[in-house]
Amino acid sequence: SISSRFAGSTKVPPPEATVRWRWSKDWPYSMTVTRELELKPRLVIKRAAVKPALAGNLDDWKDATTFTLDNVYYIDPAVPGKKLLWGGPADLSGQIFLKWDESALYVAVLARDDEHIQNTSEMMMWSQDVLMYALQLAEPGKGEGRYEFGFGAYADHDAIARYWNSAKDATGPDIQFKSRVDKEKGICLYETAVPWNRLAPFVPAAGREFRFTFVLGEADSQLGKGFNYLAWTPGINYGKNPADFAILVLGEK
Fold first, then answer.
1. What pLDDT was estimated at residue 206?
2. In 48-142, which ranges are E strands?
3. Phi-psi region of 28 (alpha: psi -120 to 50; beta: other; left: phi over 0)
4. d(CA 96, CA 230)
5. Is there a contact between 175 and 195 (Cβ–Cβ < 8 Å)?
6. Which of 8, 32, 78, 238 has its CA at a distance of 20 to 30 angstroms from the CA of residue 214?
7. Which phi and psi (to 5°) does residue 145 adopt?
8. Residue 8 CA: distances (Å) to CA of 11, 35, 211, 233, 247
9. Under a CB-based contact definition with an 8 Å cutoff, are residues 217 and 236 in contact?
10. DSSP 40
11. Pairing mode of beta strands 92-100, 42-47
12. C-alpha separations of 85 from 19, 186, 228 in Å
């Protein structure tokens, strides 16, 4: 039998398969094994009707494809201790917005976090409150590009960390990033635009697809809550494996 633990949701974790059997026809007790099926999300994202201005609000993201991670299922590492420390969506959750045009891939995340902490070095931003996303893109005859970017919202500036960057020698428009932190409301808005020249050798077009996933890092003054993430799929934090990423498909409006 196959079932989902979150039936009715538009974004569900992988379903579970349960198998029951007997050792023999004379054995009165059945054996049961339940395993989570390793299915990767596949999402079609809309072509942008409006190019986002990265102005610190979501007014120009209404045409984006969006979904929310707000369930304990997405806590990473997936160990009981970390999951027990999660205080619900106000503690850490995120709504992602995705769209594209011929110029760039646009990614925004509205993070809810009761305590925003980001004061470490830029290359260590992954250890505190951060948005990170990773991509693997291929172009027939030209090979693959692999990327992992971190976006840190500091008290006095925004910073981008390029942890994995196949297009390190790229020229032309660079990655754009704008954040807005409201500590009273417990939110942090990350707005990013990645020009396709920064994702070489991929050439965008409707119907093209590539691997993508994202995480929100969690720093907290509560003991034991650091190095905790909310992850759409594995593949960034613990083990760098693009095969674990979701698949994004470039769609139309």
1. 97
2. 65-69, 75-76, 92-100, 104-113, 131-139
3. alpha
4. 12
5. yes
6. 8
7. -125, 140
8. 9, 20, 26, 20, 22
9. no
10. P
11. parallel
12. 32, 18, 10
**What ranges in the chain are assigned the alpha helix state H?**
80-85
For residue 121, CA distances in Å to 102, 126, 232, 240 come to: 34, 10, 25, 22
Distance CA 124, CA 245 (A): 22
Measured distance CA(168)–CA(56) in Å, rounded: 27
pLDDT in tens, 81-95: 778 888 889 999 999
How far, in Å, CA of 193 to CA of 198, rounded? Answer: 10
Q: Could you report the per-residue pLDDT of 171-200, keeping only the tens digit for each? A: 999 999 999 999 999 999 999 999 999 999
Instruction: State the Cα–Cα distance between residues 26 and 223, nearest whole angstrom.
Output: 53
**Ramachandran class of 199: left when φ > 0, alpha when ψ lies in -120 to 50, beta otherwise:** alpha
Please say if the pLDDT value at position 5 is more than 80: no
Using the Cα atoms of residue 8, residue 232, residue 62 and residue 206 in order, give the sign of their dihedral. Answer: negative
pTM score = 0.85
Task: Yes or no: say if 14 and 66 are a contact pair by the CB < 8 Å rule.
Answer: no
